[in-house]
């Protein structure tokens, strides 16, 4: 039976958003260079990024953090899944959008991306080339320019490499006021419920065509939740073949938190021959983003 050795990494580069929005030009260059160097250092076969930003200037030129990853010459296959943009969600309460208007940007957008050494396959026919799909799992009634009303999507793809694993890149909701030091109990409960619902919708999406067929699936991203939160417990309890790849140096992946909220999961555990997982805590990681990358090496049966 064919097996595949695969290194997967996930990183929220939300701190990197400032490379295009807020920082001075010298700081922009420094953060971009740190991200570029970090990507080379991680040497992942598949890289899942969250909070990737880009804007189109007055001359129609696109400036994107995707370009930073492209400069590494490591990923011939990449896809950006847009979540919010000026053209669709223009909101005066969103500072970067107001800045975009007065900087004569034609557009600004933020989303998630997948970068791969392997070609993308069709979801239904892995022998043929395809493209990832960007699928909503939460859409607010109205966008108010804050994280409470950010839409949430799953970026889903399949690798054109036997045994053709599916890859899902997730970034789940977090609410203002759900965490200390200004934690509001009602907000905390609301955030837990929203993440539970989003994971439930993801399971509904993949149940028939992936889980029930016992197809290999890697789920990576910023869950904004610790491993014992109800939503993640639901993911693991509803399908016991799901397993969290536990880092050997398990700990916080964000400086304001005491435990990891960025994770990599695998399904089904019966098709996982072996794995190692770690959180990259290097100085380079801390310069590149406010999150730390989670990296896993897997051997998939």
Helicity level: 25-40%
The 3D shape can be described as globular
| Span of the ends, CA to CA | 7 Å
Strand runs, count? 14
Q: Describe the biggest sheet?
A: 7 strands, mixed
Q: Could you tell me the strand content as a percent range?
A: 25-35%
Q: Count of DSSP helices?
A: 8
Radius of gyration: 19 Å
- The poorly predicted ranges are 16-24
| String of helices and strands | EHHEEHEHHEEEEEHEHEEEHE
Mean pLDDT: 94
State the secondary-structure class.
Answer: alpha+beta
Report on the structure:
- With 301 residues, the protein is an alpha+beta fold.
- It contains 8 helices and 14 strands.
- The strands form 2 sheets. Strands 1, 2, 3, 4, 5, 13 and 14 form a 7-stranded mixed beta sheet that branches. Strands 6, 7, 8, 9, 10, 11 and 12 form a 7-stranded mixed beta sheet that branches.
- Strand 8 (152-159) and strand 9 form a beta hairpin.
- Helix 6 (185-211) runs parallel beside helix 7.
- It is globular and about 60 Å long.
- Residues 16-24 have low confidence and may be disordered.
Entry summary:
This protein is of the alpha+beta class and 301 residues long. The protein has helices spanning 18-21, 25-42, 65-70, 86-89, 95-102, 185-211, 230-238, 283-288, and strands spanning 4-12, 46-56, 62-64, 77-85, 107-116, 120-121, 133-138, 152-159, 166-171, 217-222, 243-244, 262-267, 272-279, 294-300.
Show the helix and strand layout:
Blueprint: E1 4-12, H1 18-21, H2 25-42, E2 46-56, E3 62-64, H3 65-70, E4 77-85, H4 86-89, H5 95-102, E5 107-116, E6 120-121, E7 133-138, E8 152-159, E9 166-171, H6 185-211, E10 217-222, H7 230-238, E11 243-244, E12 262-267, E13 272-279, H8 283-288, E14 294-300
Parallel strand pairs: 1-2, 9-10
Antiparallel strand pairs: 1-14, 2-3, 2-5, 4-5, 6-8, 7-8, 8-9, 10-12, 11-12, 13-14
Helix pairs in contact: 6-7
